[in-house]
Amino acid sequence: MADFQTSSHRARWIFTPQELVEKYKEANQRAIEALDKFGATRVEVDIDGTLTYPEPLSGTGGDKHSRAKPLNVDEEKLLRVFYEYKIQDACQAFDFPHKIQATALMYFKRFYLQWSVMQHYPKNIMLTCIYAACKIEENHVSAEELGKGISQDHQMILNNEMIVYQSLDFDLIVYAPYRSVEGFVNDMEDFCQAENGLQMFQLALAALRRSNNAHGVLDFESYLSSVIARQNFLHTLSELLESLDAIDVWIEKHYIPTADELKRIDRKVKSCLDPSSHDKSKKREKKSKHKSKRGSEEAPSGG
């Protein structure tokens, strides 16, 4: 495997928190613009990965009253978080190695820097990301086997494969923190002997610090201070702790949607993906109200 310092992962896929926020906003805005133009952002993915959009709405601005209401950035985030957990569940069900799970999650996150969930339904994309991760990590599982194991159509996995690769710019090698965590546990001093260790392993070190806070194995800050002093490490203790604190802040902000929230968001995203589902939902609602009204009119009065 190539060195992280010269990898496409480091050069192209490391972002500041603010940069990530901006990218998600841009993807959301592109989807809303497509919704305004086409009436639905649903796209057809051909076998070669090319995309076909529906015909634009006729007239100026189309029929705004018949359009589905788009998701906002926060709703998209909650839906992505839900399916990130589903990726973990699926990988555990297949007993895949941690590296496959980490790679699939990374593919999923990168994909939705380019697209909105209103354009590609995350349940479909998550399965394709798992399938692609199995390939790149040399733990090949057929699409048929993967689809059968979680009761999904394997053809959907294959149909989305090329668009996933294209959205990743074919940068398929990713670096996960697992190896670093194992190395820290075996001998933490090795971390400080590695050049540019802070950039490469801060996620792993943050995870180790949180675990140590829970179990109280050692005085973590004192230990790091003594090791940095002995090894002439390139970064100061305050710089290292600042990076770990920033990671902790993001972890504390992490929010898992409730079942009710997810149902509401899922209904919205499906109406964006398929405008007919929005119309069908309205018809079912009207039909239910009509039945309820008929039932009350036909009910005998009490004597």
TrEMBL record:
Region ranges (Disordered): 272-303
Keyword Translocase included in the entry's annotation: no
A GO BP entry: regulation of transcription by RNA polymerase II
Gene3D superfamilies in the cross-refs: Cyclin-like (1.10.472.10)
Pfam families per the UniProt record, alphabetical: Cyclin_N
Superkingdom: Eukaryota
A single GO molecular function term of this UniProt record: cyclin-dependent protein serine/threonine kinase regulator activity
Keywords: Cell cycle, Cell division, Cyclin
Keyword Cell cycle: yes
Every Cyclin-like domain range: 85-166
Membership in a protein family: Belongs to the cyclin family.
Entry-linked PANTHER family: CYCLIN
Protein name (Swiss-Prot/TrEMBL): Cyclin-like domain-containing protein
